[in-house]
Design a protein that fits this description.
single chain, three-stranded antiparallel sheet, about 550 residues, 11 strands, about 10% strand, about 50% helix, 4 domains, six-stranded mixed sheet, globular
């Protein structure tokens, strides 16, 4: 049975509690406390970079840290959190890996032995997939605790679980991160080589003289470094490519051995032939990040074969799914590439319009299949001042919570046949956007909207006043509501009573706070993470009544 909460006589302004279980948010309005595991998921997806209007990044991060420690203090919550963490990571539901790796580091410091064991033996191998992930994870652990036996064994196991070929790739692609080198990790974890080739690679990675390492007669003749390692060593000996022949040989070296950008000297990266060779087997995420550079060196032009390769990959669902490309990263790539210049540095390029179109299409493809519900849906986007504060995820100029909310809403707008989009802050008004518009045009339009104060009750109040038939309200907000004369959950109840429609409310949280306007005791209200890649499908199922 759900706990009973005393309801204070209403209508009650949002600056006062309407129920005894409400808490005060960062804007001094009263809302509901998000359950710890829901807050946990918000943190994994949205992180705390950039902070919020009412809570700076430091405070926001401190609140998240307190939540993480509390979750992993409990056996049951800790084990469930590890399942959520694995799901978010493996399915690519979060735009950045950093919050996930940080949460895993907290789990390693849990006082509950079963949680620590599960984190090390089951979660770690699923989540820490690359050498770069390992560097970042260890950097977080170092901030929280020292090098204990569990960490040493786990890190050593990561190296020993790779074949020599896999290990060569990781060692040459990611040599240092976050102030930590491979030599540091190997010296601290002390993995015991399981083969002569592992021994050779560990010796090379720690800077030892690999020839002296193997003085046993005939040993060197019985082992041979993997091809990628030999190609890497060859590339390091060719710092410049002054002639066409050298560039051709370097390109062939890259093609034959699938070398990545990190494995070759920086001096090579000014030549289109080199980027053309890299593109052949370039991972999808790397391709998206380097669209500007490939355009700057002249590889990507309106008529080039390389441009057709990029477009084909961006618009093929299987490529996106296999690479775990998050919609957020495609949105960032779209805004950055179209701008013609990098966020940092002096890199500039002329955007290729067909690649801009492909990035737009890729954004919608990355959500895979979202089924239409046929329901009457009001999408309400919070465009109050707080939603325009900072940058979502700490990156991409202009990508505030408000603009990201509009991008997410466009997925629903394109799928559903009976949907209307409104904006609200201190007042409520229709927004001039539709599913047929380009995503970057919508983002630009939304960046110009700001309606001052925050009143999340306005969508329901407007629908009641205008006698609109609404089956579901989809509200994108940071939950910092405080301005209205009635609470959102009360406004929904009044709408239901007057219309006779058992309307549902979906609240999409756009920042990683632990607040929600959704009443946890009402099964007709759902709180989701605003930029979770699975959110549109989850929303569709809830609105259709499948959840």
């Amino acid at each position: 049975m759900k706990p009973y909460h005393h309801v204070i006589a209403g209508p009650t302004p949002q600056s006062e509690p309407a129920r005894s279980d409400q808490v005060v948010n960062n804007a001094s309005g009263y809302v509901f406390q998000l359950p710890p595991l829901d807050h946990f998921r918000r943190f994994l997806v949205l992180g705390t970079e950039g902070g919020t209007y009412y809570a700076g990044e430091h405070k926001h991060t401190r609140q998240a840290l307190d939540m993480l420690r509390a979750v992993f203090m409990s056996r049951d919550q800790g084990l469930t959190a590890l399942e959520v963490l694995t799901d978010v990571s493996v399915r690519g539901l979060a735009p950045k890996v950093s919050p996930t790796l940080f949460a895993l580091a907290i789990a390693f410091a849990s006082p509950v032995r079963e949680v620590r064991s599960r984190a090390a033996k089951q979660t770690f191998p699923e989540v820490v997939r690359t050498h770069s992930h390992l560097f970042e994870f260890v950097s977080y652990v170092k901030e929280l605790r020292g090098w204990g036996r569990l960490l040493r064994e786990t890190v050593a196991g990561w190296y020993l679980s790779r074949t020599p070929e896999q290990l060569s790739y990781q060692l040459t692609k990611y040599r240092a991160r976050n102030g930590i080198t491979t030599r540091d990790l190997l010296r601290l974890s002390k993995p015991v080589p399981t083969s002569p080739m592992h021994d050779w690679l560990f010796a090379w990675a720690t800077g030892k003289d690999v020839m002296k390492r193997f003085e046993e007669p005939g040993l060197l003749s019985r082992i041979s470094p993997p091809a990628v390692m030999e190609a890497y060593l060859t590339a390091q000996g060719l710092s410049t490519l002054s002639s066409k022949v050298r560039r051709q040989n370097a390109a062939r070296l890259i093609l034959d051995n699938h070398l990545t950008r990190e494995m070759i000297p920086n001096g090579w990266l000014q030549h289109p032939e080199i980027w053309d060779a890299l593109l052949h087997s370039m991972p999808m995420t790397a391709m998206i990040r380097n669209l500007g550079k490939m355009s700057e060196v002249g590889l990507l032009t309106p008529m080039s074969d390389a441009t057709q390769t990029v477009i084909s990959r961006l618009t093929t669902l299987e490529y996106l799914r296999k690479a775990r490309i998050h919609p957020f990263n495609l949105l960032v790539a779209l805004l950055t590439y179209k701008s013609g210049h990098g966020v940092k540095g002096s890199l500039q390029w002329k955007p290729v319009s067909k690649i801009v179109d492909a990035l737009d299409k890729a954004f919608y493809l990355s959500f895979q299949t979202v089924e239409p519900t046929g329901k009457r849906i009001m999408i309400a986007l919070d465009v109050s001042g707080s939603m325009h504060w900072g940058l979502l995820g700490g990156v991409a100029p202009g990508l505030s919570a408000a603009t990201a909310a509009a991008a997410m809403a466009m997925v629903t707008e394109r799928v559903e046949s009976r949907v209307a989009v409104y904006g609200f802050g201190g007042h409520f008004t229709p927004l001039d956007i539709s599913g047929g518009q380009r995503l970057d045009d919508v983002v630009k339009y939304m960046a110009e909207q700001s309606f001052g104060h925050t009143d999340c009750a306005l969508p329901m109040l407007h629908a009641r006043k205008e006698c609109m038939d609404i089956d579901a309200f989809l509200v994108y907000t940071d939950n910092e509501t405080w301005y209205g004369k009635v609470h959102p959950f009360e406004a929904l109840r009044r709408y239901r009573d007057s219309s006779g429609i058992t309307a549902r409310l979906v609240v999409a949280g756009m920042t990683a706070t632990d607040f929600t306007i959704a009443d946890p005791a009402d099964p007709g209200m759902l709180d989701v993470v605003g930029f979770d890649a699975s959110a549109p499908q989850l929303i569709s199922e809830f609105v259709a009544g499948a959840l």
